[in-house]
Amino acid sequence: MFIFRFLLLSLMVISIQTFAIIPQNEQNVLRQTIEKKSVPLDISTTFIRAMYPVGEGEKSFNGQNNQEWEIQRESDTRFAIYGENLNNSLLSFTTHAESCIWERKDRIYRLQVNESNPNSHIGELAYITLHLPFYNSTLYLCVTPPDSNRAFHQGNTPLLKLRVTRRALPVWATILFLICLLILSGLFSGLNLGLMSLTPHDLKVIQEAGTANDQKYAKRIYPVRKHGNFLLCTILLGNVLVNSTTTILLDSLISGAMAVACATLAIVIFGEIMPQAICSRHGLKVGSQTVLLTKLFMLLTFPISYPLSKLLDTILGEEVGARYTRDQMGALLKHTTTTDIEDREKIMMTGVLSLKAKKIRGVMTNLEDVFMLEANRIVDDELVLNVYGYGYSRIPVYEGQKNNIIGLVYARDFALPDTDSGKFTVRNIMNFCKHRYGTSITPDDSSYDVFNLFKKEQYHLGVVVEYDNTSEKDPRAKAIGIVTLEDIIEEMIQEEIVDETDVFTDNRRKVRNVLSQAQDFSVFIGHNSNEAISKISAQMKVAIFQFLSTSVEPFKEKYISPNILSLLLNADLYKEYEFNEDEAKSGKTTYIYEYGKAVDYFVLIVNGNAELETGKEKIVSEIGSFYYFGASALYSPDEKIDDLIRSKSNKFRPFTPDFSLRVSETVQILRIRRVHWLAAVRATYFERKQTPNDNASLLDSSGKKVDLLAQELEKVDNVDPVNATGSIAEEQTRQRTSSLALTVASDSGVDYEKILAEQFDKSDITNSNKILSNMTINSERNTPTLTEKRRKQLFRSSTTTAATPPSLTGESPKY
């Protein structure tokens, strides 16, 4: 378009300049006239053969009508005059066609010969600069010889006549008019880009969803823009008109090649480049502000532009706005730069647009990656904890082979059945709940269609099946995976949805969720040789874990990590006290805590009841499960974790109860000594220090998981090496020394252990190798204390000093 306009303007300027150039045929006529040495009507030896304009001045030769020179009034125009005896002759002008006596003008010029060649056909040559006022008639030349007072008429040959013309407009008016034309040219060019680039559909969108100003602008433009071809014809017609007029007016001021160059530069810069650059960015606002002027030009050019627009409508049809496919719309969103839409939002929108093209095959979870339950499996603690540990809310149920999915169960369905009875199977729960799910989804189905199916049927999970056509019977559906509503939504937003209970962030690659809050209670699953531990169900251990980690300060995550705490609760720290009514009637009482007797252990009642005796009045109250005592025996709020890890805080920390807690029926308790608790604190420290950032467990050289708690417990050597298989009744029958105070050995409290060893030696206890380190307080105040192994170690170390563990920082500890 731009090249076409440039060529058109150049042709127009060149066509105008033809007025200033003598055609070739007229040059031949003039040359023949000079060569014939035509003589004027008046006989004289001084005469002019021809005159040509040279150099400066605005001049032209009118070869079509009167064949005369045309010059501008009151402007200097230089001519070359050829003739005979011209030196010092006087040149004047008359409007009479035959005589210089009548109508002679007052402007007289003296000729000075510059060149003279006797052998030349044109004779002498003189130059003269004319500056004439406007005469509304043709001027003829009159020459007065230097030796005469008579003026001789030079005839009416084409080269000896001239006319003085004047401009149609003054120079200042022409310049002002040119400026207005350039502004209109720029306006038409800008509107051509700004308005025509906005389709009526775009304007409707802006009216509904644009800013307040844009909505106002679009509302004003729309009535004009909806007549697309009419507006286009008006703009182009007006643009060509003002550009043509600009060229003509500019030629009246400047002629020649300069006029061509100036017209081209002015129209290109001020009529094309600048307005299009502005309107490409602010076309809506410019079009709104100039809509009245646009309507005016549509009215002025109506006779031409309206028929043309109707012709275009008939040939080309009505104007059609931009149309985009899904892929094109996605690419448009991807490459659109705006501060209003974030990159994350663009990704979501492109995901929604591409949903229809995505097949379920690329969205589903393959069958080998699905956690499922067998229909005939007994619902027990192990199964419930497995379901809880995986963190899935909906679990497929299969029968026989995994590709034969027959139903669905929810994780919450396992809350009510009695897991200890062994009477419930997964099939029983599935048949009772009867959860709905999709059963006829194929891998080639569109994700968009499956999403609509889920919304319509109101379920969240579907089984993806393929049909086996290999047999001669009817095709059999075979499950190859599952797809959930969450899977499809993740494809929409192009991101994994991971909540606080998800164990894996990616089911296919088994990437664990670092921030998952779902605890792994698999450590509680299985059987223990310890009778007391085996009587504590896995669900009870989970309840104990949740209670201690949330309600009892020493067991919160600040001190002990969830992983270490679960291992600690699975150790041999549970005790069962069997209540003997006969012994109770005879006055023998089994104490868990006795008033005024120092201990170093924490107790949590798991099952059963106990009697609490408090105050000087000895008020007795019955307490039950999940009452705990002795938290201050484990820690002090003033102790720092660094001090707990180092050996200087491992010394014996007695807790002297101001109450008594005695057994009133068979009761199960969790008893944790300070050394056990400190071992768990140290294990937590090393776990946090050595565990890699990817939350993977530490492995030894053989690839097995390192049990940090077991290592720390072995160091303190305070976990009972013999399983507590005997009952409390048997323990009460053992011989005890009533003079022994209730004291417990700690990892670094050697002085206390020496005292206990000496007292054992004085009392001549021969059965000390059978005494358990688990303490029991009875009414006779006989206290079992050390194992035989530990007692021998104390005697060997009675004359030595306990070694000080190295500092964690590599420095010597300061006390």
Automatic annotation (TrEMBL):
Taxonomic lineage from the root: Eukaryota, Metazoa, Spiralia, Gnathifera, Rotifera
Stored InterPro entries: ACDP, CBS_dom, CBS_dom_sf, cNMP-bd_dom, cNMP-bd_dom_sf, CNNM, RmlC-like_jellyroll
Biased composition (Low complexity): 797-807
Keyword Transmembrane helix applies: yes
Protein name stated in the entry: Metal transporter CNNM4
Source domain of life: Eukaryota
Region (Disordered): 776-815
Domain CNNM transmembrane, chain residue ranges per copy: 167-348
